[in-house]
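Honest question from a wet-lab person: if I give you the sequences of every part of a complex, can you actually get the arrangement of the whole thing, not just the pieces? Trying it with mine:
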Amino acid sequence: MKGINMIQLAKELGLSVSTVSKALGDSHEISSTTKKRVMELAKKYNYKPNPFASNLRKKKGKQIAVIIPDIVNNFFALAVDGIESVTMAKHYDTFIYLTHENLEREKSVLEHLENGLISGLIISVCTGREGYGHFQQFYESARLPMVFFDRVPDLLQFPKVISNNYESTFESTERLIKAGSKRPLFIQTEEPLYTLMERRRGFQDALVANGISFTDESLITCSENMEDNYLLLKKLFSSRKRPDGIFAPIEKFAITVYQVCRDLKLNIPKDLKVIGMTNLRTAALLNPSLSTLSQPAFDMGREAATLLLKMIEKKSYAAANDIIVLANELTIRDSV
Amino acid sequence: MKGINMIQLAKELGLSVSTVSKALGDSHEISSTTKKRVMELAKKYNYKPNPFASNLRKKKGKQIAVIIPDIVNNFFALAVDGIESVTMAKHYDTFIYLTHENLEREKSVLEHLENGLISGLIISVCTGREGYGHFQQFYESARLPMVFFDRVPDLLQFPKVISNNYESTFESTERLIKAGSKRPLFIQTEEPLYTLMERRRGFQDALVANGISFTDESLITCSENMEDNYLLLKKLFSSRKRPDGIFAPIEKFAITVYQVCRDLKLNIPKDLKVIGMTNLRTAALLNPSLSTLSQPAFDMGREAATLLLKMIEKKSYAAANDIIVLANELTIRDSV
DNA sequence: ACGTTTTACGAAAACGTTATAGCAAAAATT
DNA sequence: AATTTTTGCTATAACGTTTTCGTAAAACGT
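Yes, you can. This is the full assembly:
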């Protein structure tokens, strides 16, 4: 921070600090000739206003935060890419915080951000049944614009960016059935978030709409522990009443299904048709190529960021409780 | 930012602002009873010091930046994960900037960061032949601790975190040869960075060490345009003198190789043995499972961040021109 | 020519901290 | 008992901006 400051600029120009400040802010109070003089000297010295001083005085800055469960996941990586494309263009700085599905971490990040470091917040919540009181609480005290995406809480007052989980899962499930699956299976989690609930609803309704009864055997509950899941699925797939179709609403479940099938020498798609929700770029290169329902991750990030910045700049965040819904994309490959 | 501030705290406690500040900073000048009183009231009101004011006064903050080419790439995602694990633990905030292999963007990010927003910088440079003058220049004027990782410039004065590219590529190439490859091929880029050069050197030396002559035909040059690369490789693989082994030093090249083989109905590993440098989690599920040389991405991020924070806190960044070398991991699967 | 408005700038007060210097009172040293 | 030193606190000046208010001079209107 060896840089020059306004005071030195002002001195060299024979102007007051306030004039320099206004000139750099392109204020109408300053004559265009003075503005030009100021701008030129600023450029000559490569002057950059100190953001701390500026933010302190203005009581706000151009920094936002992104809180997501994980970055080693194509979906979130793409979303961050989308977010960054907007913030970069609008000259905002983007903080990133990873919760690793840990509620305590999510809470502590929020608590930390109450210090006023940021002007807005983009969030995809981590799993857990404990509700969303901490977001409510954060909002009460910080009063900052917040946008949720994909993994959204059921708090009405916040704007959200999601994808058409119900419809696209319905469609995907129908494809499984049309391809010949009589006993499709949906893999759910222990504490399903809204997003997952929607997918399950789509699955269930597709079964019913196609004359297949939805029973306990249409669902299996997997956990965060992948080894447990592997064993659980292996046991199920070895049983007499094994499913002949799978909708995996989470990437890692789809991968586990593949691993189990490989180890049990089950043939995909003959023995088991598989559709997985994932943004894996290598889905087409798996053995066999995986049919995917992929989310418009980049676009979701882009929309969320665009909305957030709009809220920040218009200060109309109280009203902006929109829900933006984008379409997932179904790609049928050899696994069906 | 509805929060309470020090002045109000001081007033309620009947103390001066400086006493409160020192008490919160756990200064030895303040008695432990007063400290306790202050801390308790601060906690009661959930007081958080304003980072802008604090940073302004102290002329530094707890924010760092990460500049990487891409986040939609398992390697960089893992590295960011590693970085964040450190910054989170030490209560630093992490900005993220993506260059998308665009030198202009890299430059403009650097220029932006000259405003003093951050206290340190972790970088993996983008490709391009234009040299690294902008980093030098940034350092001259900002004087901030900087750590490079993986894609490092050949500027001596900066500390770097890399992996043993030469040795591990040498070993990988030997495995290709031992598995029967007589004509191994290395895919290089148009403007190889230091990292890639090291890998090529390892490849070349492995050939020579195993009695295979290193010729023009041991190399092929691919570009950023994946479609061009696809056609180029397809043509080569269709020719009489096609290679029977491939070392792909970049993830996307390995994927393209798989695509070409699939389309040409070439059998991996019979017709072509493949080792790819990648951190893809799905490598084992590809058809056939891909042998990988993977980088310790998370650890590299962690080391880089640890080093950077040490430099920031010790202010000894002038001296810290270490190079930390971590080991890549070779996993042989069905593709060899 | 006189009053009024506009233009273009400057002085000074924030913004919320931290660091420096000062100063009584208490404790320790002679 | 007289001194030095330590303890525990306060007053105040930064840090580098932005913003509010004030005010000459210039421009305008009649």
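Two things worth pointing out. Residues 15-19, 22, 28-31, 34, 53, 55-59 of chain A lie near DNA strand C (CB under 10 Å from a C1'). Chain A has three domains: 6-49, 61-163+298-326, 165-294.
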